[in-house]
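ok so I'm stuck.
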Amino acid sequence: MPWFLVDDQFHSHPKTLATEPAALGLWVVAGSWSSAHLTDGVVPDDVLPRLLPDAVKLAEALVDSGLWRRVKGGYKFTGVTEKIPTRKAVENERKAAAERQRRSREARSSRRDSGVTSSVSHSAQSNPSPDGYGSVVDQRAGGNGRATPEMIDLIMKEIEIATGKRIDAEWAQLTYANIVGRRHPDNPAAYIRSAIRNEPNPRTRFLPNY
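replied:
not stuck anymore, here's the structure
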Protein backbone atom coordinates (compact mmCIF):
# COMPACT_ATOMS: atom_id res chain seq x y z
CA MET A 1 0.00 0.00 0.00
CA PRO A 2 1.62 3.30 -1.07
CA TRP A 3 1.82 6.18 1.41
CA PHE A 4 1.42 9.94 1.13
CA LEU A 5 4.45 11.22 3.04
CA VAL A 6 4.41 14.65 4.63
CA ASP A 7 7.52 16.55 5.74
CA ASP A 8 7.69 16.82 9.54
CA GLN A 9 8.30 20.57 9.12
CA PHE A 10 5.11 20.99 7.11
CA HIS A 11 3.34 22.61 10.08
CA SER A 12 5.77 25.51 10.14
CA HIS A 13 6.69 25.83 6.48
CA PRO A 14 6.12 29.38 5.10
CA LYS A 15 3.86 28.02 2.34
CA THR A 16 1.77 26.19 4.89
CA LEU A 17 1.45 29.27 7.09
CA ALA A 18 0.32 31.25 4.04
CA THR A 19 -2.50 28.80 3.25
CA GLU A 20 -5.96 28.80 4.78
CA PRO A 21 -6.81 25.70 6.90
CA ALA A 22 -9.59 24.50 4.59
CA ALA A 23 -7.17 24.45 1.64
CA LEU A 24 -4.67 22.49 3.72
CA GLY A 25 -7.42 19.94 4.35
CA LEU A 26 -7.86 19.54 0.60
CA TRP A 27 -4.10 19.20 0.22
CA VAL A 28 -4.02 16.25 2.63
CA VAL A 29 -7.08 14.48 1.19
CA ALA A 30 -5.87 14.97 -2.38
CA GLY A 31 -2.44 13.65 -1.46
CA SER A 32 -4.00 10.48 -0.11
CA TRP A 33 -6.12 10.14 -3.24
CA SER A 34 -3.14 10.60 -5.56
CA SER A 35 -1.07 8.00 -3.71
CA ALA A 36 -3.94 5.50 -3.77
CA HIS A 37 -4.50 5.95 -7.51
CA LEU A 38 -0.84 6.25 -8.47
CA THR A 39 -1.26 9.52 -10.37
CA ASP A 40 2.25 10.80 -9.53
CA GLY A 41 0.89 13.80 -7.64
CA VAL A 42 -1.67 14.90 -10.24
CA VAL A 43 -5.25 15.67 -9.17
CA PRO A 44 -7.64 15.92 -12.16
CA ASP A 45 -10.21 18.72 -12.32
CA ASP A 46 -13.14 16.29 -12.33
CA VAL A 47 -11.90 14.61 -9.13
CA LEU A 48 -11.71 17.79 -7.04
CA PRO A 49 -15.45 18.16 -6.30
CA ARG A 50 -15.53 14.60 -4.96
CA LEU A 51 -12.80 15.26 -2.41
CA LEU A 52 -14.11 18.24 -0.43
CA PRO A 53 -16.79 20.94 -0.71
CA ASP A 54 -15.52 24.10 -2.44
CA ALA A 55 -12.50 22.12 -3.64
CA VAL A 56 -12.17 24.15 -6.85
CA LYS A 57 -11.81 27.41 -4.93
CA LEU A 58 -9.50 25.81 -2.39
CA ALA A 59 -7.30 24.46 -5.18
CA GLU A 60 -6.62 27.99 -6.35
CA ALA A 61 -5.57 28.89 -2.82
CA LEU A 62 -3.04 26.05 -2.91
CA VAL A 63 -1.70 27.35 -6.21
CA ASP A 64 -1.40 30.86 -4.78
CA SER A 65 0.65 29.60 -1.81
CA GLY A 66 2.88 27.41 -4.00
CA LEU A 67 1.79 24.01 -2.66
CA TRP A 68 0.18 23.12 -6.01
CA ARG A 69 0.69 24.18 -9.60
CA ARG A 70 -1.73 24.17 -12.49
CA VAL A 71 -1.20 21.50 -15.15
CA LYS A 72 -3.27 20.46 -18.14
CA GLY A 73 -6.54 18.98 -16.88
CA GLY A 74 -5.87 19.47 -13.19
CA TYR A 75 -3.34 20.30 -10.49
CA LYS A 76 -0.04 18.81 -9.36
CA PHE A 77 1.77 18.76 -6.03
CA THR A 78 4.97 20.78 -6.16
CA GLY A 79 7.02 18.36 -4.06
CA VAL A 80 8.08 21.06 -1.62
CA THR A 81 6.62 19.61 1.58
CA GLU A 82 5.53 16.11 0.57
CA LYS A 83 6.62 12.96 -1.19
CA ILE A 84 4.23 10.91 -3.29
CA PRO A 85 5.49 7.50 -4.52
CA THR A 86 5.62 7.23 -8.30
CA ARG A 87 3.55 4.68 -10.16
CA LYS A 88 6.72 3.06 -11.51
CA ALA A 89 8.26 2.68 -8.05
CA VAL A 90 5.10 1.17 -6.56
CA GLU A 91 4.61 -1.25 -9.45
CA ASN A 92 8.24 -2.36 -9.27
CA GLU A 93 7.91 -2.99 -5.53
CA ARG A 94 4.70 -4.96 -6.05
CA LYS A 95 6.41 -7.12 -8.68
CA ALA A 96 9.36 -7.68 -6.35
CA ALA A 97 7.02 -8.62 -3.49
CA ALA A 98 5.15 -11.08 -5.72
CA GLU A 99 8.45 -12.64 -6.76
CA ARG A 100 9.55 -12.97 -3.12
CA GLN A 101 6.27 -14.68 -2.27
CA ARG A 102 6.65 -17.05 -5.23
CA ARG A 103 10.15 -18.02 -4.17
CA SER A 104 9.01 -18.48 -0.58
CA ARG A 105 6.20 -20.82 -1.68
CA GLU A 106 8.61 -22.81 -3.83
CA ALA A 107 11.08 -23.07 -0.95
CA ARG A 108 8.37 -24.31 1.44
CA SER A 109 7.17 -26.82 -1.12
CA SER A 110 10.72 -28.02 -1.72
CA ARG A 111 11.31 -28.45 2.03
CA ARG A 112 8.11 -30.49 2.38
CA ASP A 113 9.04 -32.72 -0.56
CA SER A 114 12.57 -33.15 0.78
CA GLY A 115 11.21 -34.09 4.21
CA VAL A 116 9.00 -36.83 2.79
CA THR A 117 11.87 -38.19 0.68
CA SER A 118 14.29 -38.18 3.61
CA SER A 119 11.83 -39.98 5.87
CA VAL A 120 11.32 -42.77 3.35
CA SER A 121 14.83 -43.13 1.99
CA HIS A 122 16.67 -43.12 5.34
CA SER A 123 14.26 -45.14 7.46
CA ALA A 124 15.94 -48.43 6.60
CA GLN A 125 19.51 -47.13 6.86
CA SER A 126 21.94 -47.02 9.74
CA ASN A 127 24.60 -45.05 7.86
CA PRO A 128 25.75 -41.58 8.91
CA SER A 129 23.14 -38.94 8.19
CA PRO A 130 23.98 -36.84 5.09
CA ASP A 131 22.79 -33.62 6.74
CA GLY A 132 25.92 -33.24 8.82
CA TYR A 133 24.36 -33.95 12.23
CA GLY A 134 26.33 -37.14 12.81
CA SER A 135 25.48 -40.83 12.72
CA VAL A 136 22.18 -42.39 13.65
CA VAL A 137 23.74 -43.74 16.84
CA ASP A 138 24.93 -40.26 17.76
CA GLN A 139 21.46 -38.84 17.10
CA ARG A 140 19.63 -41.16 19.47
CA ALA A 141 18.62 -39.85 22.88
CA GLY A 142 20.40 -41.21 25.90
CA GLY A 143 18.88 -43.65 28.29
CA ASN A 144 17.19 -40.82 30.20
CA GLY A 145 15.11 -39.92 27.12
CA ARG A 146 16.85 -36.59 26.52
CA ALA A 147 17.92 -35.53 23.05
CA THR A 148 21.58 -35.04 22.21
CA PRO A 149 22.92 -31.51 21.65
CA GLU A 150 23.05 -32.26 17.92
CA MET A 151 19.38 -33.23 17.93
CA ILE A 152 18.45 -30.10 19.92
CA ASP A 153 20.28 -27.96 17.35
CA LEU A 154 18.48 -29.74 14.50
CA ILE A 155 15.07 -29.14 16.09
CA MET A 156 15.79 -25.46 16.76
CA LYS A 157 16.88 -24.88 13.17
CA GLU A 158 13.97 -26.79 11.60
CA ILE A 159 11.39 -24.97 13.72
CA GLU A 160 12.96 -21.61 12.86
CA ILE A 161 12.70 -22.47 9.15
CA ALA A 162 9.09 -23.64 9.50
CA THR A 163 7.82 -20.79 11.69
CA GLY A 164 10.28 -17.93 11.40
CA LYS A 165 10.71 -18.01 15.20
CA ARG A 166 13.70 -19.11 17.28
CA ILE A 167 13.01 -21.43 20.22
CA ASP A 168 15.38 -22.20 23.10
CA ALA A 169 17.05 -25.52 23.90
CA GLU A 170 14.60 -26.35 26.69
CA TRP A 171 11.62 -26.01 24.36
CA ALA A 172 13.48 -28.04 21.73
CA GLN A 173 13.83 -30.86 24.29
CA LEU A 174 10.08 -30.74 24.97
CA THR A 175 9.44 -30.79 21.23
CA TYR A 176 11.68 -33.85 20.88
CA ALA A 177 9.70 -35.67 23.55
CA ASN A 178 6.43 -34.62 21.92
CA ILE A 179 7.43 -35.86 18.46
CA VAL A 180 9.32 -39.04 19.35
CA GLY A 181 7.47 -40.11 22.50
CA ARG A 182 7.92 -43.86 22.97
CA ARG A 183 8.81 -44.46 19.35
CA HIS A 184 12.22 -45.75 18.30
CA PRO A 185 12.75 -44.57 14.71
CA ASP A 186 15.77 -45.96 12.86
CA ASN A 187 16.78 -42.43 11.92
CA PRO A 188 15.55 -39.96 14.55
CA ALA A 189 16.90 -36.93 12.66
CA ALA A 190 15.01 -37.80 9.49
CA TYR A 191 11.91 -38.69 11.51
CA ILE A 192 11.88 -35.37 13.40
CA ARG A 193 12.76 -33.33 10.32
CA SER A 194 9.88 -34.90 8.39
CA ALA A 195 7.44 -34.35 11.28
CA ILE A 196 8.30 -30.65 11.51
CA ARG A 197 8.32 -29.98 7.78
CA ASN A 198 5.07 -31.81 7.12
CA GLU A 199 3.15 -30.29 10.05
CA PRO A 200 0.23 -28.25 8.57
CA ASN A 201 0.26 -25.74 11.46
CA PRO A 202 3.85 -25.61 12.76
CA ARG A 203 3.39 -22.32 14.63
CA THR A 204 0.44 -23.73 16.57
CA ARG A 205 2.11 -27.03 17.40
CA PHE A 206 5.75 -26.11 17.88
CA LEU A 207 5.83 -22.59 19.35
CA PRO A 208 5.28 -21.91 23.06
CA ASN A 209 2.27 -19.82 24.12
CA TYR A 210 1.16 -19.26 20.53
